[in-house]
């Protein structure tokens, strides 16, 4: 019956010429309470028919026909608009009804825009003008405070209106071809472009269109087609002002899909200590790491700090030159040289593949070198250290890798050559004794490939030839050069596998003569020493292989894991590995007590190495019980006189044994270590080496001494024992024993951090001290104390520098430090009101920045499984069990989750029938089914729940301000689209709380913090933006 009354009212209005407000008052009688005219479809799901409207507005309507047709009429607004536009000019009375309805908000903006976009007879200029005037009423203040579905409807309607305006503009630009009434066409086009500008100038409108584009990709394709058509017709315009206006509108529309990815680079800085420290850390502690994780980490820092590409590349080179200059002489210097000349060019090749904007990456590299050439003192110092023109060698390498054009390389080389004419030089005598390491490293790289090919051959066919190759590798510093080149090019693991295979080959004995047995002994000994050296220099993880199909673990791997002392590794001297068959031990003791030459044939060297520990224990027990005197113990000299590997295995067991003894029980064991570590200076040289002139005995002894020194370092420090190892003229254990004695480690930590902050950059020595302190104090202690130091800073420039430096220090173990920071330290600061004063600006803002940087880096690398080997091997005894802290079973949420989820009065439920009901903890990560069994995911989810509760709380303070800074930094650091980012853990209900904060009430921020890949995310964003 209401339908009939409604139509009778329209009829009566037409007959009696009601004014707009009379009509509105009378129409409200037929409305359901609280409804708008949008929903008054005279028949649900009806096919549109305009017959009713023609009847209603006919001077003498047939009321009976109205009653017959009521079930097929469209929405009232569309019907009225259609009727208003039925002639060549609009009906002013009907238009007045519509305008009144819009002004009094009895119809939604989306319904009006949708109705307008259905009008397509652009030849009726007066009708088009009227529609544009209607749009003028609200296009700069669009809003919707209804349900989420209504807000999405507004997005769709706005995109339809945008397309309609583009079609309209294209129609009038085409009319310029006809040359008939150009003035009228120009006026109409001007009106269209003004409305387009009015819509597009609003960030809010562009954000709503962005959501509509993701919601309906097909409709966006139509917009793009209309854009193309308009662009093609712009040449018809004679007015430069109109053309400029149209170009501006087209540019704004094209920017909508990428509106979240536009970040301006930071142009007010020239130094970036984070990049410097990340490169130094990698070169000092992770030469063997893959290049991709480093590339990803560098790109993450570049993105977060918005560093311009030329300055980004420049900072990488600066760090490399500083590393070269300050690296200790010996192995570390070779490692740095390989890192700079072999690994970094490969890193830049991978960086080249990333989108760098409009500028070509080779131009950025060229620009970076131009800047670098101005740092003459730095380059001169590096040249002096390396005794060569480092810059020219680098330029050649970059040119080979396609990072520099031939012209640019020649130009840059010429500039550096001219600068070097005035550089300080070493005296000629000193020059003659220094071989340039960069040249040696660059030559070593192809040699590594050749050696790998040689090692692939069948060892049984030419063991003598293989021995010759090993002899050359042992001479001088060849081994360290080759290992450094292999490490920098990612071939060290292959290198180690070849020597494992060679070591295994020596197990096989089949009817050998004395000569073959001698060769086999040498191959075992050299391969064993080389593998020990690799493990100590580059980390034992380089040696470890994937599990073989047969399940058999090579001898050296077994020995290394169970018997070889390493920093922080606890060995069990009673391990079954140290307790072989007693008959083998007795025969070995008898053999070693005999000073005559050892029988070579059928000797199983791997068994001898495993049995030596038990043999040493027998001798030690006999000595301690008075059965033997120290003078009568010949075994140590005999062990040294046979093969180096046996001495290494003996010392390895003694080191493990000493650690288990009391202070007063260690003397005899330490005396045996001293005996074994002291080289023989008599004619009784190693039995098998003196037969081989091609093999350098001193080199083997030096390598063995270096291995023993590394093994004993911890025990000697703990027992204050001194052993004089053979001098090689360089520090064999660089960065060892850096902590000052009798000084609390907290004082050391604060002191080093203060010095680093004053300098503005982290040096290699400081990195090693931080690493030692992290290892000693544990992750929580380390993180907590450094955060306290950050919160003490009160000057803005100091806090920003501290954040950059702390982030780089946290790269020592980013995953665990992030878990501690986000899972323990931040929640403690945010929930304890007595600590809120510490979160004031600037230190609080700096901590928010650090937290976001760590969270983004950890989550990014964690998703790609890129924890470095350095981080994987760190001990975790001090890390709390995050699985018990944040329970695994998602049906049993943590206490924090339960508390927040029960706070229903703060829950902002989207009450659309198409939306799923939301609890206050529902987030995009749950819809993406991200595993909450992962500690990092769990910590992030709980942190965002805590942030959500702070935003919804009735009290505000510095902790609320901290949350705002945290979210602002998240938005600043984000790439376009937040799927897979840390913001997916943010509850959807938090969006409506965030927009209440003045600085967060921006459409762009709402787009950035919601997951627009999800329908629910788009509805949440639309609802929040439409209400702004």
From TrEMBL:
Cellular compartment(s): Nucleus
InterPro entries noted in UniProt: Mediator_Med24
Pfam family, one: Med24_N
MF terms (GO), sorted A to Z: transcription coregulator activity
Nucleus as UniProt keyword: yes
GO-annotated biological processes: positive regulation of transcription initiation by RNA polymerase II
CC per GO annotation: mediator complex
Record's keyword terms, sorted: Activator, Nucleus, Transcription, Transcription regulation
Signal peptide: none
Family: Belongs to the Mediator complex subunit 24 family.
PANTHER family: MEDIATOR OF RNA POLYMERASE II TRANSCRIPTION SUBUNIT 24 (PTHR12898)
Protein name as it appears in the record: Mediator of RNA polymerase II transcription subunit 24
Natural source organism: Alligator sinensis
């Amino acid at each position: 019956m209401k339908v009939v009354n409604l139509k009778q009212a329209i009829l009566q209005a037409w007959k009696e010429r009601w004014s707009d407000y009379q009509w509105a008052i009378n129409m409200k009688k037929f409305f359901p309470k609280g409804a708008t005219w949008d929903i008054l479809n005279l028949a649900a799901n009806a096919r549109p028919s305009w017959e009713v409207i023609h009847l209603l507005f006919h001077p003498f309507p047939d009321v009976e026909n109205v009653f017959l047709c009521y079930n097929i009429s469209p929405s009232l607004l569309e019907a009225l608009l259609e009727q208003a536009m039925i002639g060549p000019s609009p009906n002013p009375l009907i238009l007045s009804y519509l305008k009144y309805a819009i002004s009094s908000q009895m119809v939604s903006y989306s319904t009006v825009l949708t109705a307008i976009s259905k009008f397509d007879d652009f030849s009726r200029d007066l009708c088009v003008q009227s529609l544009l005037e209607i749009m003028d009423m609200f296009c700069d203040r669009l809003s919707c405070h209804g349900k989420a579905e209504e807000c999405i409807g507004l997005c769709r309607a706005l995109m339809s209106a945008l397309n309609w305006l583009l079609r309209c503009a294209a129609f009038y630009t085409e009319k310029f071809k006809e040359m008939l009434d150009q003035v009228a066409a120009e006026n109409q086009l001007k009106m269209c472009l003004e409305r387009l500008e009015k819509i597009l100038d609003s960030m809010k409108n562009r954000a709503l269109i962005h959501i509509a584009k993701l919601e309906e990709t097909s409709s966006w394709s139509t917009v793009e087609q209309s854009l193309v058509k308009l662009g093609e017709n712009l040449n018809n315009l004679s007015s430069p002002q109109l053309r400029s206006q149209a170009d501006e509108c087209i540019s704004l529309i094209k920017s909508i899909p990428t509106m979240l990815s536009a970040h301006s680079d930071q142009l007010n800085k020239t130094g970036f200590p984070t990049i410097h420290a990340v490169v130094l850390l990698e070169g000092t502690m992770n030469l063997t790491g893959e290049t991709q994780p480093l590339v990803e980490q560098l790109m993450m820092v570049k993105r977060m700090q918005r560093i311009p590409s030329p300055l980004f590349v420049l900072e990488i080179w600066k760090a490399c030159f500083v590393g070269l200059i300050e690296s200790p002489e010996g192995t570390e210097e070779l490692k740095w040289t390989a890192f700079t000349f072999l690994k970094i060019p490969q890193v830049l090749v991978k960086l080249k593949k990333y989108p760098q904007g409009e500028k070509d990456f080779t131009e950025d590299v060229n620009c970076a070198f131009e800047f670098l050439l101005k740092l003459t003192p730095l380059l001169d110092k590096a040249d002096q250290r390396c005794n060569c023109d480092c810059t020219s060698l680098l330029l050649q390498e970059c040119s080979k890798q396609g990072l520099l054009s031939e012209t640019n390389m020649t130009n840059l080389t010429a500039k550096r050559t001219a600068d070097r004419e005035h550089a300080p030089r070493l005296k000629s005598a000193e020059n003659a004794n220094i071989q340039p390491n960069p040249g040696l490293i660059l030559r070593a790289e192809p040699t590594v490939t050749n050696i790998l090919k040689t090692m692939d051959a069948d060892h049984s066919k030419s063991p003598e030839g293989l021995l010759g190759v090993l002899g050359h590798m042992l001479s001088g510093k060849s081994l360290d050069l080759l290992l450094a080149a292999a490490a920098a090019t990612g071939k060290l693991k292959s290198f180690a596998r070849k020597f494992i295979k060679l070591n295994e080959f020596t197990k096989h004995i089949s009817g050998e003569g004395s000569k073959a047995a001698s060769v086999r002994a040498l191959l075992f000994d050299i391969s064993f020493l080389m593998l020990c050296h690799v493990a100590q220099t580059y980390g034992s993880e380089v040696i470890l292989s994937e599990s073989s199909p047969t399940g058999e673990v090579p001898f050296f791997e077994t020995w290394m894991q169970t018997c070889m002392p390493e920093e922080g590794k606890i060995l069990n001297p009673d391990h079954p590995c140290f307790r072989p068959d007693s008959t083998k031990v007795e025969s070995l003791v008898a053999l070693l007590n005999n000073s005559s030459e050892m029988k070579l044939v059928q000797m199983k060297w791997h068994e001898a190495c495993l049995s030596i520990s038990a043999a040493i224990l027998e001798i030690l027990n006999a000595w301690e019980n008075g059965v033997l005197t120290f003078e009568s113990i010949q075994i140590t000299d005999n062990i040294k006189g046979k093969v180096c590997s046996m001495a290494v295995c003996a010392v390895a067991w003694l080191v493990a044994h000493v650690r288990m003894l009391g202070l007063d029980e260690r003397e005899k064991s330490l005396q045996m270590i001293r005996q074994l570590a002291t080289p023989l200076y008599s004619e009784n040289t190693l039995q098998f080496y003196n037969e081989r002139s091609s093999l350098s005995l001193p080199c083997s002894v030096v390598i063995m001494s270096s291995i023993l020194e590394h093994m004993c370092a911890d025990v000697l420090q703990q027992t204050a024992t001194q052993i004089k190892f053979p001098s090689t003229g360089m520090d064999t254990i660089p960065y060892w024993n850096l902590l000052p004695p009798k000084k609390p480690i907290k004082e050391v930590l604060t002191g080093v951090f203060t010095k680093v902050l004053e300098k503005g950059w982290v040096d290699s020595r400081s990195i090693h001290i931080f690493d030692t302190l992290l290892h000693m104090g544990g992750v929580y202690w380390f993180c907590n104390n450094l955060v306290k130091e950050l919160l003490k800073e009160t000057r803005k420039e100091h806090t920003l520098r501290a954040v950059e430096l702390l982030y780089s220090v946290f790269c020592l173990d980013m995953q665990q430090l992030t878990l501690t920071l986000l899972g323990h330290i931040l929640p403690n600061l945010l929930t304890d009101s007595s600590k809120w004063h510490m979160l004031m600006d600037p230190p609080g803002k700096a901590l928010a920045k650090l937290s976001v940087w760590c969270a983004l880096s950890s989550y990014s690398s964690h998703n790609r499984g890129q924890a470095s080997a350095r981080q994987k091997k760190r001990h975790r005894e001090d890390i709390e069990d995050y699985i018990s802290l944040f329970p695994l079973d998602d049906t049993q949420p943590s206490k924090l989750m339960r508390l927040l989820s029960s706070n229903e009065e703060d829950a902002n439920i989207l009450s659309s029938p198409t939306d799923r009901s939301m609890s206050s903890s529902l987030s995009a990560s749950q819809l993406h089914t991200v595993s909450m069994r992962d500690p990092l995911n769990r910590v992030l989810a709980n942190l965002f729940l805590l942030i959500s509760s702070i935003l919804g709380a009735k009290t505000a303070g510095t902790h609320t301000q901290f949350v705002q800074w945290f979210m602002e930094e998240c938005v600043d650091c984000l790439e376009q689209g937040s799927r897979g980012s840390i913001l997916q853990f943010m509850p959807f209900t938090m969006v409506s709380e965030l927009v209440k904060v003045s600085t967060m009430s921006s459409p762009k921020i709402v787009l950035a913090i919601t997951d627009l890949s999800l329908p629910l995310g788009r509805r949440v964003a639309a609802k929040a933006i439409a209400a702004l």
